[in-house]
Each structure stands twice: as structure tokens, then as C-alpha cells.
Design goal:
The strands form 2 sheets. The protein has a 7-stranded antiparallel β-sheet with strand order 6-5-4-3-7-8-9, covered by helices on one side. It is of the alpha+beta class. Helix 2 crosses helix 5.
Length: about 220
């Protein structure tokens, strides 16, 4: 229950008095919650999770404005390997928790984007500035997920991506054709890198997102 409440707070757009740190994020790293991680992924997997905690602690200690964590978080997770779901999880489509992603050493585009999203939320970035965006990767001719950051509602979003390690404005990513974007507050249709048309407010209705949140609120694995 304690972690479920924390997760709900994490998904809210903003909380007064947060400063730069989301309260109780360390609950996810309590030893009893990491037992399933070690059981599934071994000592090396557990070490990777501890390295993520150390990374977050180091970033928080810098006391930077939240948006100044974008490049470091993007670089940190882009060190991991791309592995398709069918190979990695023996499933057609699976959204890994950030712990599963780092403990297993990698994942697919959704896993990169989700790990960046939740880590930036812990580092103080408001959910209203972050959206997970599905796009078509034109060079690969396949669906692709990225994380986008919007400084303001009307700003051109910055794209955090595992295909291109540089954080670029959306209008400098002609290789991506946006389809839709979402976060904890809703779902947007996006035919271009702009504000988009809001299709749904509140629960975004995406089943894999709901499944991911349930697993995050339960065991760390």
C-alpha cells in the first residue's frame, strides 16, 4: 500500500513543496523489495539496480533545476543494449519496469523511454512536461517509442531517444513520424511534433501502461 500511494504521487502533474526530490522514492530500493530482482536476475542484476540508485542520488546531490537532468538521464540509459521483446522476454510486446530494464541489461524502445520517464519524475520533472510518444521510425519502417520533453505547452518538444543519442527538437527529427503521445494524465493524437489533440483526460486507457503500473506498485520485479 505504501508504494502504491507513492506511485500515484509520482504520476501527478505537480505537488507543492516538492523541491527537486520526489518523496519516498527510496522505498523502491528497500532490501525486501529487491529480493525478487536478485532471484530473477542474479547478483549482476542487483548490482545494476544499485547503480541506478547511486546515479539518482548523485544527480539529486547536484541540486540542479529538474530540466538540467535530461541529458544525463538520456545518456545513462542509452548505455544499455537494445533487445527485442521476443528475444528478451519471449513475448510479442512487454513493457519492462525500470528495475527489469537495468537488471536484465537492456530492452526495447518502450523500456528505454519508460526508464527515462520514471527517473526524470524522481528527479523532480513534472509529468505535465513529459510524454511518452509513439512514432513511426521511417528509416526502419517500424513503430517506435520516444520520450518527449515540453518546456511549455506551445514549445517544440525535445526528443529523448535510443536510436539517436542526441537530444534534438522534434522538428529536427524528420526520421520520426509522430502518432500519439501519453502520460499519467491523458492521451494525445500527434500528427506532428506539436501540442497535439487531446483524446482522453485522466486514465489514458493504454492496457500495457496499466499493467506496468500494477507491477510497479506490487513487487519490484
Amino acid at each position: 500500500m505504501r508504494v502504491t500511494v507513492w506511485l500515484l504521487l509520482l504520476l501527478l502533474p505537480s505537488l507543492p513543496g516538492w523541491g527537486q526530490e520526489v518523496p519516498q522514492w527510496r522505498d523502491f530500493f528497500l532490501p525486501e523489495r529487491l529480493v525478487p530482482i536478485e532471484r530473477r536476475f542474479g547478483e549482476q542484476g542487483l548490482t545494476q539496480v544499485h547503480e541506478l540508485k547511486a546515479f539518482i542520488e548523485a544527480r539529486l546531490a547536484m541540486k540542479l533545476p529538474p530540466h538540467e537532468h535530461l541529458a544525463a538521464v538520456n545518456d545513462h540509459f542509452n548505455r544499455y543494449h537494445f533487445v527485442p521483446d521476443a528475444t528478451h522476454w519471449n513475448r510479442d510486446d512487454y513493457w519492462a519496469t525500470p528495475f527489469e530494464f537495468v537488471a536484465s541489461g537492456g530492452g526495447d524502445c518502450e523500456d528505454f523511454s519508460l526508464a527515462k520517464f520514471f527517473t526524470l519524475r524522481v528527479l523532480g520533472l513534472s509529468s505535465e512536461h513529459l510524454r511518452l510518444m509513439y512514432a513511426k521510425a521511417l528509416d526502419l519502417n517500424q513503430a517506435h517509442m520516444v520520450l518527449i520533453y515540453l518546456e511549455t505547452d506551445s514549445a517544440m518538444p525535445l526528443v529523448l531517444d535510443n536510436l539517436n543519442p542526441k537530444i534534438l527538437p522534434g522538428d529536427q527529427r524528420p526520421d520520426l513520424l509522430p502518432v500519439y503521445a501519453f502520460n499519467g494524465e491523458g492521451l494525445w493524437r500527434a500528427r506532428a511534433f506539436d501540442q497535439g489533440v487531446r483524446l482522453k483526460q485522466g486514465n489514458n486507457g493504454i492496457l500495457l501502461w496499466q499493467d506496468l503500473l500494477q507491477r510497479l506498485a506490487g513487487d519490484s520485479s
